[in-house]
Amino acid sequence: MKPAFAEISQIAYEGAASKNALAFKHYNAEEVVEGKTMKEHLRFAVVYWHTFRGTANRWR
Length: 60
Fold this sequence. Notes:
Strand order of the largest sheet: 1-2
Radius of gyration: 16 Å
Helix content: 25-40%
Number of strands: 2
Order of helices and strands: EEH
Strand content: 5-15%
């Protein structure tokens, strides 16, 4: 399967001062926060969010 955006290289972390529109300003996947990388935290956060916002949610 071909990637959807093959002409765009991997988006990198450049920091808050970056003027690059295609750069992470606050998300550094390899930065360790509370013993886990931000990449590991994001994975959990996405699953957690979709658990409460999914179509089977009764509490909307």
